[in-house]
Amino acid sequence: MTAPRLLAFAIMACAAAVGSARAQDATSLKKQMPGQWELSTTERSKTCVVTLKGDAAGQGLKLELEPACKTALPFTKDIVAWSVRGLDIVRLQDAAGEAVIDFTEVEAGIFEGLRQGEGVYILQDLAAARSMAKSMDQMIGDWSMVRGNGQPVCGLTLTNTEADPDNFQVFLKPRCDAAVAQFNPTQWRLERGQIILMSKSGEAWQFEADDHAQWRRVPDTADPLIMLRQ
Question: How far apart are CA 225 and CA 158, in angstroms?
Fold first, then answer.
């Protein structure tokens, strides 16, 4: 076989392999998705249970929305079916098969979708979402912020009072370290396993749980800031 023919054969083989992988991924996603999912805003102030099924329905597959969905998330009134599009898009669609919202997986079992003019929505396994809600309830209350050597630098209170549709109010206690006082966070949320504190100027500090049940500011530094539950 000549070099040009070998090259053409290799290209065709690669294309066939990619096509097969895509078909396999789409098929796997169709098998993975049936079950109960929570559709929500990023901070879960508005939630809705969606049950995806494997049965055909018009131009997609069947789904059920709990009655409260249309009140919590009005755009869901247009959703009548779901489907997998392309390699990895989970589509919640209208009667014509058009996207009401498209989701892509950002972490195992967690999908993100954007609606222009409204913001980002999350689709995740219902049991996992409820576990996260329990975790968020455990965040509410008083915290101490300390240096890596244990020196206290600030006290703060995380509340469940909405500051806006995506975030909750946080209050600093008196006599905070100058750096924390200057940052002066006014809002917080729990997102993808991180506590996110935000200032009025839009600056954000992220904290992740470590192996000692503490929350360390990331990225880590030689002189870390740590949040401890009081």
Answer: 17
